[in-house]
Amino acid sequence: MKRGPIGASTALLASLVAIQPAYASPSVYTAAPDEPGAFTVSGKADGRADDTAAIQQAIDAAAEKGGGGIVFLPAGTYRISRTIFLWPGVRIFGIGEKRPTIVLGPRTPGFQKGVGHMVMFAGGRRERDPKDARPVAFAPPGSVPFNKDIPDANPGTFYSALGNIDFRIMDGNPAATAIRFHSAQHSFVSHVDFDIGSGLAGLYHVANEAEDLHFRGGRYGILAEKPSPAWPFALVDATFEGQRDAAIREHEAGLTLLNVSIRDTPVGIEIDRGYGDWLWGQDVRFENVSKAGVLISNENNVYTQIGFQNAVATHTPVFARFRESGKTVAGKGETYKVSSFTHGLTLPAFGQMGAYRTQVDAEPLSALPAPSALAIRALPPVSDWVNARSLGAKGDNQSDDTAALQKAIDTHRVVYLPSGFYKVSDTLRLRPDTVLLGLHPSLTQIVLPDGSPGYAGVGAPKALVESASGGDAIVAGIGLNANGNNPRAAALLWKAGARSMVNDVKFQGGHGTNRFDGTRMDPYNNNATADPDAARRWDGQYASLWVTQGGGGTFANIWSPSTFAHPGILISDTTTPGRLIQASVEHHVRTEIGLNRVSNWELLAPQTEGEAGESGDAVALEIRNSSNILVANLHAYRVTRTRKAAPAAITLYNSQDIRFRNVHVNAESGVGTCDENGCATFLRLTKFPFENALRDVTHGLDVREREFAVLDVRAAPQPVAPVTFEGARIEKLADGFHSIGGGAVDAQGKLYFIDRQFQRIWSWSDSGKLEIVRDAALDPVNLTVDRSGNLLVLSSFGRNGTVYSLKPGSPDTELTVIAPRPAGKSGNAATVLPVNWWINGEFKDQIDPKTYAFTTLAEMFTRNMALPKAEEYASPDGSVVLPAWRVFAQGPADHRGLRFSDSLDSYGFIQGKPGTRVFLTNASENRTYSGVVGAEGAVTGLKPFAERGGEGVASDAQGRVYVANGQVFVYSPEGQEVGRIDVPERPLQLVFGGEDGKTLYILTHHALYAARTGR
Question: Domain holding 444: CATH number?
Answer without folding.
Answer: 2.160.20.10
